[in-house]
Amino acid sequence: MLDTLTADTFEAHLGSAFAVNAEGNEDVLTLIEVERYTLPGNRDRAPFALTFHGGRDDAMYDSQVLPMDHAELGRLDIFISPFGRNEDGTFCYQAIFN
Predict the structure, then answer these.
(1) Torsion 86-83-46-29 (CA) sign
(2) What gap in Å lies between CA 80 and CA 66, rounded to an integer?
(3) CA distances to 44, 65, 80 from 4, in Å
């Protein structure tokens, strides 16, 4: 299913919650940005990146595939990587689709 998702799929859900329960931690990641990339050549889909803000400041997920549950998209297993912290101490994550 992931191979059929596009930037448009996620842009329709900016600001929405993706529930995560992994490594003994429960969290809600909020989709805050969808960034599109342009690469030359014939591709099945244009590459894009998703940026999420986590809801916890006491637990960070390492780079890994996380099961994420969304109210409309259902269960998605998405590879995310942490890349910083927000001002409130919560973590930022990014997922890249190419």
Answers:
(1) negative
(2) 7
(3) 9, 17, 18
Show the tokens assigned to 1: 């299913």
DSSP codes joined into one string, the chain: -GGG--HHHHHTTTT-EEEEEETTEEEEEEEEEEEE---SS--SS--EEEEEE-S-SS--PPSEEEEEEETTTEEEEEEEEEEEE-TTS-EEEEEEE-
pLDDT digits (tens, 9 = 90+) for 40-72: 766 677 899 999 999 988 888 999 999 999 999
Structure tokens at 77: 């297993």
